[in-house]
Write a structure and sequence with these properties.
Number of strands of chain A: 6
Distance between the termini of chain A: 36 Å
CATH superfamily of the largest domain in chain A: Winged helix-like DNA-binding domain superfamily/Winged helix DNA-binding domain
CATH class of the largest domain in chain A: Mainly Alpha
Shape of chain A: globular
Largest sheet of chain A: 2 strands, antiparallel
Largest interface: A-B, 89 and 90 residues
Oligomer: homodimer
CATH architecture of the largest domain in chain A: Orthogonal Bundle
Order of helices and strands of chain A: HHHHEEHHEEEEH
Strand order of the largest sheet of chain A: 1-2
Number of domains of chain A: 2
CATH topology of the largest domain in chain A: Arc Repressor Mutant, subunit A
Helix content of chain A: 40-55%
Chain lengths: 161, 161
DNA sequence: ATAGATACGTTTAGAATTTGAACTTAATGC
DNA sequence: GCATTAAGTTCAAATTCTAAACGTATCTAT
């Protein structure tokens, strides 16, 4: 089991990174989102070693990001499927994919599209409860009621780019 | 320098994870987005060791996610600031923050809001060129013209959750 | 029923990475 | 000059990862 712990911040982002921010863990979640469910397939598609993969799958299962089930037609098989918590990481993966398309790639490998209209996903935007778009330039980080003075001091100068 | 390389996929997501998917790298990008610019501040806020931090900052600079500049008032200082490519990772961090709020936290530590209206960011959504929202349930991954047969076979069953 | 193959692990030694402390170098302040 | 600060570098010890072998249960074919 990975013992390394990132500095325990109250920062929600630091906590999320502590839970899934490990490089291999993200690769595994990517594969799960692509539809991979079995140990050997995760291995083949990520290149992770057996020991590491077993460890990370156990961690993701304990964190309720994946759910482990036994195959009922073939008793040898174990399936790891995304829970709702896991599926909720889709926007993270989608934004990464769009970033990659914009900055890392010129080839047209794969695109996310609407199943209904076929229109390509070009962007990911923040919205408020009413559905209004909030641009990155207009975004600020606001301390909440449970924030510590120390962390408040750090984020008060920060605003989104 | 980190030698470990994730399986070299043509997959844009795998490439993005290869570039920034390392755990410490993501912590550093988080800090940069929070406004951290100096070596010692990155160290204090992430808990990374000096050697590792120097290595990762060099990598992020080489990847043009950070830009390294010298302080002109104080010649000892070095600043690492986000480039546009780096700032474009904001949606990734914001989605992670929202995921954390939904699944990892019950405390009200910090929220992203509109500077203009004060409205809280509640969600991140995919949109097409015309600005129509494409829900995760309606999203499919479509192979592009430069895809290899092998990768095409893998994603053809995949659809977003 | 026996033999071989498959799926999912565990174990282990060796390799690679990370830590933590000490050390450099260069610039600043007193 | 002398202490301090910022940003690294160096290196031995600790941790983590890999790769190959091994283990166990289940399935398939003979």
């Amino acid at each position: 089991m990975l013992k390394r712990q990132f500095a325990q911040h109250e920062c929600p982002l630091a906590q999320a990174l502590g839970e899934i921010g490990d490089g291999w863990t993200l690769q595994i979640i990517r594969e799960a989102i692509y539809g991979t469910t079995q140990f050997e397939a995760f291995r083949a598609n990520t290149g992770a070693s057996r020991g590491l993969l077993a460890d990370r799958l156990a961690h993701l299962t304990a964190a309720a990001i994946l759910r482990k089930t036994k195959g009922d037609s073939d008793g040898r098989e174990t399936f790891y499927e995304l829970t709702q918590k896991g599926r909720d990481l889709w926007p993270v993966m989608l934004s990464l994919m769009l970033w990659s398309d914009k900055h890392l790639q010129d080839k047209d490998i794969v695109s996310a599209r609407s199943g209904k209209t076929g229109a390509r996903v070009t962007d990911v935007v923040a919205i408020d409860k009413a559905g209004n778009i909030i641009t990155p330039q207009d975004t600020v980080l606001q301390p909440g009621k449970d924030i510590s003075p120390a962390f408040k001091a750090r984020i008060k100068v920060a605003s989104a780019p």
